[in-house]
Write a structure and sequence with these properties.
Layout (H helix, E strand, L loop, with lengths): L9 H6 L27 H7 L15 H14 L3 E5 L2 H10 L7 E5 L4 H10 L6 E5 L4 H7 L4 E7 L11 H11 L2 E5 L4 H4 L9 E5 L13 E5 L1 H15 L5 H12 L1 H20 L4 E5 L9 H7 L6 E6 L4 H10 L4 E2 L9 E4 L19 E4 L5 H17 L1
Parallel strand pairs: 2-3, 2-4, 4-5, 5-6, 10-11
Antiparallel strand pairs: 1-7, 6-7, 8-9, 9-12, 11-12
Helix pairs in contact: 3-10, 13-14
Length: 396
């Protein structure tokens, strides 16, 4: 085992880190401890275990050997002291937010957060007398101006998952620490491999493990990483009380996905670059929105904060009609029309799916957004599919 953190390599984290094979018959792949509870030999052992449920196997609602291996790997991947695992990304967001708010507090959020986060901010937090301000968030001045005396939490997504706006993370984290404000970020787009938010000073790093960590579109999961004190606080209250922790079988699936995470991300990164090069030259494509494309408004900030961008790309077609957008999406043979991303299969999701036909406006750029996810298929295979679908746009 590495002697210190500097010795920890990515390959070690994804394979051997936190595994003790001698304890489970030298199995190469960690087993599933598919049990709800654990027994004790003496009353004293039983009593002592309840003094520290965070580090004792008592009941799998809290911790379990399978999920324990996963949480230790993910904490190391983020460079964090500790990690908590949840049964979905939405559950992780809920727990991390609620653990750091009380009645009368104020939260500042980016203006277009993930839909489940927005629902919580708009429909649930007001019931507890918590107010929310939405801001553009692209500059530190935005966050400074929105801060009030009762502001206790900043919610960030950098990049977000449609138009990929960024926030200057290090500057925001430094300002928040001065004010005693907790910073929470959804880092699902980049993963810690391509954006180390803990190193930038962010307090709570969240990922939807359903996406890249799982990598096979066959399980849900959510991750929170941060200080040991912060993770204990969330574990003792929201995780244990709500009962939203990750189940052993789902943890095992995520362990399997984590083992191939670096190579999958590299393949997706390369494919994304090839297909953007194709799309940016196509006469039917008006605009490409991608954090590391030179046309991106915050391109310089993206280069500073992210070592790579991958997978999700939003395009706009020159043909502005709803019919043209529909034709493009429905003529794709190898891009599945589905939510989420991060698995093997490439996906497409048009914004018009959420906009009533009588409300659609070609003059509203956001109405014309088509989000593509590039998966693990052969890039030439995907390019040919995009090309034939764009040909239908030309004819429509």
């Amino acid at each position: 085992m590495p002697s210190d953190k500097k010795d920890i390599s990515l390959s070690w984290i994804t394979t051997e880190w936190a595994e003790d094979r001698e304890k489970y018959f030298n199995a190469v792949s960690p087993p599933i401890w598919q049990t709800s509870n654990f027994s004790f030999d003496t009353v004293d052992q039983f009593s002592q275990a309840f003094q520290d449920e965070r580090n004792q196997y008592i009941y799998s609602r809290g911790i379990n050997p399978t999920t324990d291996i996963l949480r230790k790997k993910l904490a190391a991947l983020d460079g964090a002291e500790d990690c908590l695992l949840f049964n979905s990304g939405a559950a992780a967001i809920f727990a991390g937010i609620f653990a750091n708010l009380k009645a009368g507090d104020h939260l500042v959020s980016v203006k277009n957060p993930y839909s489940s986060a927005r629902k919580m901010f708009d429909a649930i937090l007001p019931r507890f007398n918590v107010s929310v301000s939405y801001i553009d968030g692209k500059t530190i001045e935005d966050w400074q101006a929105a801060t009030r005396d009762n502001t206790t939490l900043f919610y960030l997504e950098s990049p977000n998952s449609w138009t990929y706006e960024l926030q200057p993370l290090a500057a925001i984290a430094a300002f928040a620490k001065e004010k005693g404000i907790v910073t929470f970020i959804d880092n699902t787009y980049c993963t810690p491999i391509y954006q180390n938010v803990i190193a930038m000073g962010i307090d709570i790093a969240m990922q939807t493990a359903t996406k890249y960590i799982g990598g096979h579109s066959d399980t849900l999961g959510g991750v929170l990483c941060g200080s040991a004190a912060m993770m204990k606080k969330i574990f003792d209250t929201e995780l244990m009380t709500v009962g939203s922790g990750l189940q052993p079988f789902n943890g095992w699936l995520l362990l399997r996905g984590l083992r191939t995470l670096p190579m999958r991300l590299e393949r997706i990164r390369q494919t994304t670059g090839q297909l953007i090069s194709f799309l940016e030259k196509h006469e039917q494509v008006e605009k490409i929105i991608f954090p590391l494309h030179p046309s991106f408004e915050q391109y310089e900030l993206a280069q500073q904060q992210m070592t790579a961008a991958l997978g999700l790309v939003t395009i706009m077609l020159k043909a502005k009609s709803r019919a043209a957008i529909t034709a493009f999406c429905e003529k794709l043979d190898h891009f599945l029309m589905a939510v989420s991303w991060g698995g093997h299969e490439s996906l497409v999701i048009p914004r018009i799916a959420f906009i009533p036909e009588d409300v659609y406006s070609a003059d509203n750029e956001s109405h014309r957004h088509i989000r593509l996810y590039f998966g693990l298929e052969d890039p030439a295979y995907l390019q040919a599919d995009l090309e034939q679908a764009l040909e239908h746009v030309r004819k429509s």
